[in-house]
Amino acid sequence: MHFSFFHLMPWTDLDEAPTQWPARNGAFSGPRGTEFYKTYIDTMAHAEDCGFDWVGCNEHHFSPYSLMSNPNLIGGALTQRTKSIKLAMLGNLLPLLNPVRVAEEYAMLDVMSGGRLIAGFVRGIPHEYIAYNISPDESRGRMREALNIILKAWTEPEPFGWEGEYYQYRSISIWPRPHQTPHPRILLSASNKESAQFVGQFPAMVGLTLIADLDIARGLIDTYRESAREHGRNPGPDDILIGQGTCIADTDEEAEEHMAKGLAYFHRVLMRPQQDAQRIVIQKTRFFGEGSSGAGAGEYFVKRLETLKQRGIKEQIEAGTILCGSPQTVIKQIKRLRQHLGAGHINMNMKLGSTPESVVYKSMQLFRDKVLPEVRHL
Amino acid sequence: MTQVSFAERDYTLSTGVLRVRSGGAGRPLIHLHSAAGPRVSPVIECLAQSHRVHAPFMPGFEGMPAHPGVDSVQKLAGVVAEFITKECGGSCDVMGESFGGWIAMWLAILYPQTVGQLVLEAPAGLRPRELGGLPQDPAERFKKLHAHPGRAPKETRSDAVLAANRKTASALLEALPFDHALAERLGEIQSRTLVLIGTLDGIIPAESARLAKANIPHSHLTFIWDAAHALEFDQPGRVGALALDFLDRGESFLVKQGAA
Question: Which of A127, A160, B90, B192 is the most exposed place for a label (fewest CB within 10 A)?
Fold first, then answer.
């Protein structure tokens, strides 16, 4: 199996949850922000020493939830701090961005890292569309078209123009092109049936996160595989990545206590401000599609987040949402996920909410020394 | 867009009679049809808003007799060159659709003085034999021509006319999917050229468009998103606006214009 160390770069100095979207930034402090970036980049670089295969970044806007409004900048820093670990951008919020710029920045990261980029593209969570003033109704169309432009930008040998529905370019010829040929490995996320089918249409890995029910997750993975087969590909376990909040400690009790505190901050403070914006986007736009299937997917999205928030640690472990416990316990949990979902790649987020750095480092160390040797061969 | 009426007229050339459908007012523009024969597409209607569009019925198509001795694409180019010389003041812009694009490329090579700017829509003649091609089965052929079947033109022509069109076209297209002589001479094309290819084209592969782009010195390649081979029907708005901008502004079409 393969493992990724994922980081959201949260702002953890808030005592009170912001109640409005976007979260007001009056409490932000420049010097403290600099400290956060240094600490977090050090931690992410340390993942290489702990045996992780990838280190992962992602993109969020207008919230203490994440200080990574452009993950590619963090990726750029990591190209200079690491030697062999793959740099996974998980991913750029493609429908919000200029696809040519994304193709260029990803190509730069791939070349700067000597071919270590994993190119993730995500449609994002609903409220992000407010930040860049892009209609959520257009998210799927933009995603599909932008992805095709990027693949062309990476592979076309001749300068080319593009006349599309959302994007028009008269001439594209990026420098540099990616280091990897024909292009870096691609990862796309899937949180519902439509997106799982969509991912299967591309030469891409699928990524699932915030799993609330193992059987539903298995269904999405099956849908992805079926769609990929229809398009002439047969994805293996290594093409399936699942995200897991993770805490490993010397004992189950200790790990659960840390996880409970971290998740409490995550849900109570970091996730709070976007709730209203999310509700507006889901209810008033076609972000999840037309008609009853769109409404169903929207309802499922809200229900899933609400369910996760209300569940206790043991329930979340049982549902396949998190990995938590002593090394022996986490090994069993990983084996169970491997067996049930057929996933060959786990994306671990150890900095959950306000989890202290000492706890994160302890988790990383136990993963390297006790867990990885027992699960690598799976 | 104002309604443009098109009229057909027969011109007597040195090789025979050439029927030409013309409409619109402005700079002359030759539109060379595909193997499906001449049709008034929304793109032609768009171009006719600002151009005098001449759409010749190539000899052997649409019930017109073949011209004696005109048995190759190069010779068809000669027919078009004579028409331009006699009726369009000696030179004009040329737009060729698939089979018509093949003729247009030879026209620009053999009679460079007759061609201003060139638009090649999924041009035939440069197709590697193992890629793409026109299926024999009508349903399969239709599927490969149209990504948006609802936008395909309603067929009003007789079966006999359509069969004759296919026979004339296939005699050239199937005999020579890859025109080596043309490929070797693409570098001689001096006209500024815009090559268009649909992202869903299953008849002319993107390789053909790339080859044209790579070898025609002053050329541009543009992918038309969500279009199969029949570009003028699948995405008339995108093709019409782009072609018009290119024809109007030449190389400046690369630069986006601000609002007036």
Answer: B90
A377 interfacial to chain B (CB closer than 8 Å): no
Give the CA distances from residue A193 to residues A94, A128, A223, in Å, rounded to whole numbers and listed in that order: 19, 21, 7
B258 in a domain, yes or no?
no
Residue B223 lies in a domain: yes
- C-alpha to C-alpha distance for A133 and A127, rounded to whole angstroms: 10
Q: What average pLDDT does this structure show over A38-59?
A: 98
ipTM over 0.85: yes
CATH of the domain at B112: 3.40.50.1820
Domain contains B260:
no
Out of A145, A165, A170, closest to residue B253 by CB:
A170
Task: Report the candidate in B222, B188, B187 with the shortest Cα–Cα distance to residue B206.
Answer: B222
Per residue in B89-144, pLDDT (tens digit) is 999 999 999 999 999 999 999 999 999 999 999 999 999 888 888 888 989 999 99
- Render A338-361 in DSSP notation, one character per residue: HHHH---EEEEE---TT--HHHHH
Structural domain for B138, as ranges? 6-250
- Give the whole-angstrom CA distance, residue B232 versus residue B40: 10
Residues in chain A: 378
Instruction: Pick the closest to residue B83 from B15, B23, B13 (CA basis).
Output: B13
Q: What is the CA radius of gyration of chain A?
A: 20
Q: A168-172 and A160-163 as β-strands: parallel, antiparallel, unpaired?
A: antiparallel
Q: Are A164 and B226 within 8 A, CB to CB?
A: yes
Cα(A69)–Cα(A138) distance, integer angstroms? 21
| Minimum CA–CA partner of A170 in chain B | B254
Nearest-CA neighbor of B113 among B212, B191, B54, B58? B191
User: Is B257 contained in some domain?
Assistant: no
A289: left (phi over 0), alpha (psi -120 to 50) or beta: left
Question: For A303-319, what is each residue's pLDDT tens digit?
Answer: 777 787 788 999 999 99
Domains held by chain B: number: 1
Q: Write down the pTM of the prediction.
A: 0.93
- Measured between beta carbons, the chain B residues lying within 8 angstroms of A157 are 210, 214
